[in-house]
Amino acid sequence: MAPRSAVLLATRNVLYVSIAGDLIVAAIKVGAAAYTGGSAMWSEAVHSLVDSSNSILLLYGVHRAKRTPDQEHPFGYGREIYFWSFVVAVQVFALGAGVALVEGVTHVLHPTPIAFAEVNYIVLGLSALFDGATWLIALRGFRRGAGDSDLFQAMRASKDPPSFMVVFEDSAALIGLVIALVGSYLSIRLDLPILDGVASILISLVLALTAVFLARETKGLLIGESADPAIVMSLLRIAREMEGVAHANGILTVHLAPRQIAVALSLEFSDELQTPALEIKVSELEQRLRALHPEVIAVFVKPQTALGYAEAVERRRGKTRQIVFHTPSPPGPA
């Protein structure tokens, strides 16, 4: 199986497990919330329902991104993943955090005691078991691609939102369960039903912070982020080492999907290369780049002098450069 297909299959499997786990947990929480009347439990039920719908949206995005390029989308549909990931972030904020906040404020204004507290604790324990299992599976899947780097930094650097969104959402779910457990216990122990509503508000805050982080990360990918610096340097090194390349001026890269990169190179070729030989060199360079980095799906090479490249960079950055040509002064009168 090709590496890209294997990674996609692993991502889909994690999403399938996440959907199944979230739906089971959501059903348990909804039943418990209706039975006990706990505000934090209602917030957690909504949280699990939102998480399950989010995984479905991510799975749909992965499916849509597999479509082949066509005339209207010559680079394919890879960015569908980034679009649906951003929709997920918005949904976490609007539905998850919004509903939990409304439920919490309502319960603070009109507090009612939790009935059948034992049921609450049992359900929270079962939810932690299911959410913890899906979190562990998602974490292991993400770790395989992230290596030994710091988890949070790996999420920031990742170009594959579904892989880290499930980990982040399940982490928020576990934090929410702890808040719900503490809020429920204190509201019963201290006979202060208002604390159950406070817990629901805190859960909404956790969801809001999760949504902000996810939106920030996916927005950058949706707009267009460059490849990892190590990949960029590797691509530039391959171009510099090509016979016939006098100077590699610069490189532009952009992710079209988690494992799809478009590359534009500015190269100054040796003066003795004629057009047929130049075409062969460009084709050979493209083969070398793709052999070492299979995620490169498009390569554009612009023959250009170093001076021409510097002028183009400044124009792209909104600057103009005035070039003064110095000519020798005419000789004075004899």
Look up the CATH topology of the largest domain: Alpha-lytic protease prodomain-like
The main sheet orders its strands as: 1-2-3
- Supply the number of structural domains: 2
Please describe the biggest sheet, giving its number of strands, its sense, and whether it closes into a barrel: 3 strands, mixed
Which overall shape is indicated by the principal axes computed on the Cα atoms?
elongated
Query: Based on DSSP secondary structure assignment, what is the total number of beta strands?
Result: 3
By secondary-structure content and strand pairing, the structural class works out as mainly alpha
- Write out the CATH superfamily name of the largest domain: Cation efflux protein transmembrane domain
Which H/E pattern describes the elements? HHHHHHHHEEHEH
- Contiguous runs where pLDDT drops below 50 for at least 5 residues: 320-334
Measured distance between first and last alpha carbons: 83 Å
Helix content: 55-70%
CATH architecture assignment of the largest domain:
Up-down Bundle
Oligomer: single chain
Percent of residues in β-strands: 5-15%
GO molecular function, one term: monoatomic cation transmembrane transporter activity
InterPro entries: Cation_efflux, Cation_efflux_TM, Cation_efflux_TMD_sf, SLC30A9
Protein name: Cation transporter
Organism: Rhodoblastus sphagnicola
